[in-house]
């Protein structure tokens, strides 16, 4: 898939619900607070959102005091944090300076391996925990390499304003990740690809957690390929298994199979660079280019905020970025950021204030 951007088009949308946020440490919403408050954490998080009355939302003066560890104007009733960390790791006064993460780790976390079904198993555990709180209405996955492009107030209103999930989803025809062994459960025409970093409404989170049909297929047939030339690799491909990177396919394929694409904005809220602007090593691997202190200045961040649409080459589809049918900037998060790059966003005031933005 190729994404191309053109001139920006910023819109106006009013948001009127409360938001509860859930974080996942091996996923990506932890950074929303972690970066803004200069907290250091070895985990990934999931963000959940709770709904309230429309009278609760106003454009408030949102600013930072000298102590950046406590953001002003953030109502703690508007978010909750859930963290999937290494099994046994505990967030407390000794391991994090952020009270928002105290004891927010899952007690049933699992060991996660990149490129295997344990990635989506961890996501499902996060959603299951967040769903126990009925006030949680939006669920956002982020990792400790994600950074917010706007302050909490704007991100909250952006996400809660839309009745749809934000799930990057497109037809996948160029790579051989789909296996015919899946066909009895997953028709090839329903196979989708997209970003792992999603924001879903409550009903879609419930679909993900309650799924006992599609997930077992991914668990059985999506494995990391052994080194080429080995006996294990020969057996792997002979059995028609695929190195299918399940976190890039599972949610997209599941929601498509459930006939829910009309309830989605088929795009991600998290900007990622996959082009030749990175190092030779980065552009030849499956991992995105990393933002460093040097390439995360005002010019680069401004260009990201200008993007107002995404082009999906495999579908000849242009996705104009909207929230509640109104045009908005496409991205409110970005990744992957080094610690130095993330701190530059904070110190140079590059995380946009909501004072001059009306939704």
The structure class reads alpha+beta
Strand order within the widest sheet? 2-1-3-8
Chain-averaged pLDDT: 76
The proportion of residues forming helix, as a percent range, comes to 10-25%
User: Could you give the order of the helices and strands?
Assistant: HEEHEEHEEEEHHHHEEHHEEEEEH
Continuous helix count: 10
How would the global form be characterised?
A: globular
The largest pleated sheet is described as: 4 strands, antiparallel
Terminus-to-terminus distance: 31 Å
The beta-strand count equals 15
Uncertain segments are 1-44, 52-71, 280-284
Q: In percent terms, what proportion of residues is strand?
A: 5-15%
Rg (C-alpha, Å): 20 Å
Transmembrane segments: 12-33
Protein name: Glycosyltransferase BC10-like isoform X2
Organism: Raphanus sativus (Radish)
GO molecular function: glycosyltransferase activity
Which tags fit this structure?
single chain; 359 residues; alpha+beta; 4-stranded antiparallel beta sheet; 3-stranded mixed beta sheet; 13% strand
């Amino acid at each position: 898939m190729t994404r191309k951007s053109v001139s920006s088009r910023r819109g106006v949308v009013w948001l009127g619900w409360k938001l509860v946020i859930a974080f996942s440490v091996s996923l990506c919403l932890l950074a929303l607070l972690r970066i803004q408050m200069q907290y250091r954490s070895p985990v990934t998080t999931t963000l959940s959102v709770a709904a309230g009355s429309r009278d609760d939302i106003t454009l408030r003066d949102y600013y930072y005091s000298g102590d950046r560890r406590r953001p002003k104007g953030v109502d703690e009733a508007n978010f909750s944090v859930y963290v999937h960390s290494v099994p046994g790791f505990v967030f407390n006064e000794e391991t994090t300076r952020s009270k928002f993460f105290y004891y927010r780790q899952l007690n049933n976390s699992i060991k996660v391996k990149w490129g295997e079904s344990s990635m989506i198993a961890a996501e499902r555990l996060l959603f299951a925990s967040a769903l126990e709180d009925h006030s949680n209405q939006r669920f956002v996955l982020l990792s400790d390499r994600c950074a917010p492009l706007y302050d909490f107030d704007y991100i909250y209103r952006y996400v809660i304003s839309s009745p749809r999930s934000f799930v990057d989803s497109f037809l996948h025809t160029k790579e051989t990740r789909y296996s015919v062994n899946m066909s009895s459960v997953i028709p090839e025409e329903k196979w989708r690809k997209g970003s792992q970093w999603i924001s879903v409404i409550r009903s879609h989170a419930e679909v993900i957690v309650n799924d006992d049909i599609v997930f077992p297929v991914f668990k059985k047939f999506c494995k990391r390929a052994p080194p080429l030339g080995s006996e294990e690799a020969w057996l792997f491909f002979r059995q028609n298994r695929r190195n299918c990177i399940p976190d890039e396919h599972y949610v997209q394929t599941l929601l498509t199979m459930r006939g829910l694409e009309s309830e989605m904005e088929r795009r991600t809220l998290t900007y990622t660079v996959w082009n030749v602007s990175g190092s030779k090593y980065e552009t030849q691997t499956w991992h995105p280019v990393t933002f460093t202190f040097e390439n995360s200045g005002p010019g680069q961040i401004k260009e990201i905020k200008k993007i107002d649409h995404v082009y999906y080459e495999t579908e000849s589809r242009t996705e104009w970025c909207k929230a509640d049918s109104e045009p908005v900037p496409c991205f409110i998060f970005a990744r992957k950021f080094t610690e130095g790059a993330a701190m530059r966003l904070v110190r140079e005031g590059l995380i946009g204030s909501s004072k001059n933005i009306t939704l």
